[in-house]
Please model this.
Amino acid sequence: MFKYISEILSQFSMSQRIVALLVVLFSIVIITLGPSFINTITLDEDELWSTINKQKTELQELQNETSRLNKVIRDNQLECTNQIVDREREILEKLAILENNMKNMQSQKRTMMVDTVNSGKRVIQLPDRSIEMMMTGIKDLKLEINKDIENRGK
Model:
């Protein structure tokens, strides 16, 4: 067998022999180093399961954090809404006081004491129509605020 190889090689030129030698050397290097190179770039089953478990843990932590942040947002929205409703109720109370004062003025002389800078107090005569207009405005405002409070509760 080696006799035939030597006959074949004798028919090659010098440059063809060098190329053949390089091909043989390159094949030997690939055959020798190939499996170890492939093992270094691929993961075995244990490493893959380890990576998958890490990712599952990370995903669970992120889901927990998302749930916690959603709860914080809902709590803050509820607190803000409650503060708005409380403020609107305060305004309603003040409007009720103002409405009672207007009713008292309507039943009295329809006069109002006003402070002025120069003369101290001054009496102003209010026409009947202005008190009625103010009362209507107060009632409309109270209705709007009550509707707002009802809508926020839904």
